[in-house]
Amino acid sequence: MLEEVENFIDEVIPDKVGTMIWRTLLSSARIIGNMDVAKFALEKLLELDPRSNSSRIEVQNKIYEFVSNQNPSKEISYKLAELEREMGELGYVADRNNLLHDAEEEEYYGAGLGHTEMKAIAFGLISLPYGMPTRVIKSVRMCGGCHSACKFMSTFVDRELVVKDTCTFHHFREGKCSCQDSW
Predict the structure, then answer these.
(1) Is the pLDDT assigned to residue 171 strictly greater than 80?
(2) d(CA 59, CA 87)
(3) What distance in Å separates the CA atoms of residue 29 and residue 16, rounded to the nearest whole number?
(4) CA 107 → CA 11, 104, 156, distances in Å?
(5) Tens of pLDDT along 131-149?
(6) pTM of the predicted model, to two decimals?
(7) How far apart are CA 122 and CA 119, in angstroms?
(8) What are phi and psi of 132, to 5 degrees?
(9) For every residue of 25-90, which 3-state class applies, written as one string?
(10) Rounded to whole angstroms, how far apart are CA atoms 167 and 39?
């Protein structure tokens, strides 16, 4: 089936909208829980545009971008480890059902805070004044694992977390999301 999808998209869809089609297929596959198709669509999307899985945050009038294959700075890695440690102490259990890369599965441990939006959120928590909302823009749809992690983090980081993905704005406050978990 995946070969048929690829052939159809390659033959019928013009190159300039190829990323949009793969992004749409990725989002749809995630919605219905077909992770095989989602993995395939993400791989094709990253072939066309390796920077298409990214998250951005504005800090002091400057835009910072975090991409999927980027190693975070020591400061961001430390913040992610701190968040993960606190989440573990508070009883958080990560959702492993939304992994899209075999590499992610190998590197996935603990709370799984390695996705681009998590790197951007950690940077925001470090760089923005205490209590100021952390606002992130993500280029693809947010996965369920990150959505759950953001809801949980919003119970203890003392600020609102906002993630705008391709489908909606997610406002995380006090353990809840504005999308009411129907993204």
Answers:
(1) yes
(2) 25
(3) 22
(4) 35, 5, 25
(5) 999 999 998 888 888 999 9
(6) 0.78
(7) 5
(8) -75, 135
(9) HHHHHHHHCCHHHHHHHHHHHHHHCCCCCEEEEEECCEEEEEECCCCCCHHHHHHHHHHHHHHHHC
(10) 19
